[in-house]
Amino acid sequence: MKLNLAKLAACVLALAALPICAADTMPRSEWHALVGDCAQNPQTLKQTIGKLSADDQLAFVQEVNAAISKMPGSNEEKGAAFYNANRAAVTGAGKENLKAVLAEVYATVPVEYLTEINERFAKELFSRTANPAHVPTDAEFIELSTNTMAVVIERCQNAEDASVRETFAALMLVRASGGTPSDLAQTLVSQFPNAQDRDTVLNDWIKPAMGDGQEQSYDPMLAAAQPSNDEPDHTVVLQLAGSSQIPETLLSDLAAPSDSRTTAANVGAGAFFPRDATGGPGREINSTDISRIPRAYVTSPTAVGGSSEGPNSGSNPYYANDRGDERQTPTIPQEETPESGGHPSLYETVSP
């Protein structure tokens, strides 16, 4: 009997590759034990998520966000923790799973902290103009955005406050677009499954959140969701989380094909947005980039920015004479940043 040496060699190579593939994927029992560490150390999180299967990456993000929710600390400390952890998650995930991981972020981070994530992700990770040599056309950006939005909508439909979460994702894409096409918000909102919500989302939520003809405010969105915590002070979160030291342009990865069956158009869009060796030019974000006052929930008497009865009513700690009397004082890192590998304790308290 004659042996087909070519087929035999192919079989041997395939069998030899199996243990390697298995060894490259971290088992659940191993990564589950690292969730607590990863919730506090974005560098560890980024290294860990890259070793997981696509399904485990989603479960991992969910568990990390649940762990951060249970940690002690002020709104600003938690806001910094959520931002750092989820930035590490999306930058550490493979491009084939990026849209799904991003959808998991919007489905599992408490809505009050998505105020920070949508703005900084748009500027620091998905900006359309981050690489001037390869700026996508309007048609290309619409395709990218609608495909991404489809994945986010499918995931968030199973989450609490689905429409609010989906709106935060849409805001990220609108901000990342740089302003064109001018009807991108309408295009994205048209994908929302509940047609009765679309007018509210577009006119009562997105326009105030973008500061369209009015002072920028997330109050209507957050009032609809009624989260358990107030919106954090964005300037303090920026100080705690640190500015972006290493530019990472993920727009080309977001445009790559994925395994999702819910993309708006099942086409390989990854041909555009080629990525240069540095990931595209970028710039540091400083505290003047987000120049907003703390804002209030419509129905919260202790909300950041005051209540419906005025900015100094109730027990609002932001307008108390001494904010440190009844809440933890954030510890602001002076030298190390999460991106450089250091990660100061987010939950140190200062004795009065």
Keywords, separated by commas or semicolons:
352 residues, mainly alpha, 15 helices, disordered C terminus
Task: Indicate the topology.
Blueprint: H1 5-24, H2 28-32, H3 35-40, H4 42-49, H5 54-70, H6 75-92, H7 98-108, H8 114-124, H9 138-156, H10 162-177, H11 184-189, H12 198-210, H13 219-225, H14 234-241, H15 251-254
Helix pairs in contact: 4-6, 5-6, 5-7, 6-7, 6-14, 7-9, 8-10, 9-10, 10-12
Report on this model:
- This protein is mainly α and 352 residues long.
- It has a domain of 241 residues.
- It contains 15 helices and no strands.
- The longest helix has 20 residues.
Beta-strand content bin: under 5%
Number-wise, the strands total 0
Output the helix-strand order. HHHHHHHHHHHHHHH
- pLDDT < 50 runs, ≥5 residues: 14-23, 260-352
Broad structural category:
mainly alpha
From the spread of the alpha carbons, the general shape counts as: globular
**Tally of separate helices:** 15
For the sheet with most strands, the description reads: none
Helix content: 40-55%
In short:
This protein is mainly alpha-helical.
